[in-house]
């Protein structure tokens, strides 16, 4: 399969890795990004069209120019803490922006889209691992903004023949194995980059948020999934839709949980640089344990995560160490 695909938010962390996988699979990604949190240097596998998803006229222009066959939508504000402080920005960008984008796609005769959703739409687990039928009760405006678009997409499918796949990522992590792109969020709030920056001496210590959870070592459990495994799932979801597949959602996680302590051990082993870990209070809004049941993506998309936690940490370490060298040079 081939064709031009519009990648909204493709200059960001996950979107740029998906562009790499799309190009490897024979597609032509065109990135549409306002560069608010993205990086022009991450756009290496197709054109960059600068623009905002809330700008209908600019979207019409770009879609008319490139005539994409499908849309992949990553463009969003992503920081949970910020969403609690400024919910309106999240509803404006992630909800109103997504609707503007979907409407532009429909005007441009695009019939389907892949949407970046999140396990944060589930909220506190009522059973583990979580499958796609798990109740969705987000704990914060970020998660709710994503759930609202999932619900809008269900209506677009039922009433407007606009099909979609919602991909509910668990914890995206790691980097392109060749070190061309990686995770660069500003400010950074994710555990792996923060710990690696601590190992590099860029931060004085790592704060571990809570060691009093009801888990095997008291620290929170997450399902870390390699960003290139995520990218592979996007290519499969796109092909599924282009083959006429119906609207649905898939969990993207490995099915294996890792505690924060285990994660820090893996990072110290790989980097061989011990660093100080301070036990801090729980971070508000954090669930004790989030682990995916990924059976549906395995069965319907034929997807299998192939990279381990060590692969995640090693690829991320290479990227962060090279970033440090780049900024020093
Ligand atoms: N990183 C994770 O662990 C994770 C987990 C679950 C879901 N997600 C979802 O995946 C997607 C990508 O996340 P990421 O980590 O790559 O984030 P990111 O911030 O690196 O990428 C988001 C991109 O969207 C762009 N963008 C934001 N608002 C825009 C707008 N109004 N118009 C145009 N471009 C805009 C940013 O400039 C950035 O390039 C997001 O939708 C996020 O909610 C991420
Ligand atoms: O300095 C830190 C940072 C994180 N953690 C812990 O490490 C784990 C992972 O945290 P993080 O990397 O911040 O990811 P999550 O908060 O698990 O991921 C959320 O954040 C994403 C937004 O980027 C959402 O999309 C995901 O769905 C959502 O689960 C959690 O238990 C945190 O409490 C620490 O102990 N210290």
Automatic annotation (TrEMBL):
Catalytic class of the enzyme: isomerase
Catalytic reactions on record: UDP-alpha-D-glucose = UDP-alpha-D-galactose
Record key words, sorted: Carbohydrate metabolism, Isomerase, NAD
Domain NAD(P)-binding: from-to ranges: 6-314
One Gene Ontology MF term: UDP-glucose 4-epimerase activity
PANTHER family: UDP-ARABINOSE 4-EPIMERASE 1, UDP-GLUCOSE 4-EPIMERASE
Protein name, UniProt field: UDP-glucose 4-epimerase
Gene (name only): galE
């Amino acid at each position: 399969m081939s064709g031009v695909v519009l990648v909204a938010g493709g200059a960001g962390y996950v979107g740029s890795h998906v562009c790499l996988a799309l190009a490897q699979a024979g597609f032509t990604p065109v990135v549409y990004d306002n560069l608010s949190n993205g990086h022009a240097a991450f756009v290496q596998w197709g054109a960059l069209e600068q623009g905002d998803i809330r700008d209908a006229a600019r979207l019409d222009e770009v879609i008319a120019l490139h005539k994409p066959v499908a849309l992949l939508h990553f463009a969003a504000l992503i920081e949970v803490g910020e969403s609690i402080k400024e919910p309106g920005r999240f509803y404006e960008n992630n909800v109103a922006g997504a609707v503007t984008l979907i409407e532009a796609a429909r005007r441009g005769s695009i019939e389907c889209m892949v949407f970046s959703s999140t396990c944060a739409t589930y909220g506190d687990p009522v059973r583990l691992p979580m499958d796609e039928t798990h109740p969705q009760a987000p704990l914060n405006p970020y998660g709710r903004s994503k759930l609202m678009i999932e619900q809008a997409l269900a209506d677009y499918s039922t009433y407007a023949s606009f099909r979609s796949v919602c991909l509910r990522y668990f914890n995206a992590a790691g980097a392109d194995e060749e070190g061309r792109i990686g995770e660069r969020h500003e400010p950074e709030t994710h555990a792996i980059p923060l710990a690696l920056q601590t190992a590099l001496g860029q931060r004085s210590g790592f704060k571990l948020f809570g060691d009093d959870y009801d888990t095997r070592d008291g620290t929170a459990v997450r399902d870390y999934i390699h960003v290139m495994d995520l990218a592979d799932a996007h290519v499969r979801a796109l092909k599924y839709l282009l083959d006429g597949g119906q609207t649905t959602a898939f969990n993207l996680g490995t099915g294996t949980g890792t505690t924060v302590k285990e994660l820090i051990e893996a990072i110290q082993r790989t980097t061989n640089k011990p660093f100080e870990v301070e036990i801090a209070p729980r971070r508000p809004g954090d669930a004790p344990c989030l682990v995916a049941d990924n059976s549906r993506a395995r069965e319907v998309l034929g997807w299998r995560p192939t990279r381990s936690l060590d692969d995640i940490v090693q690829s991320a370490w290479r990227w962060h160490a090279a970033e440090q060298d780049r900024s020093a040079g």
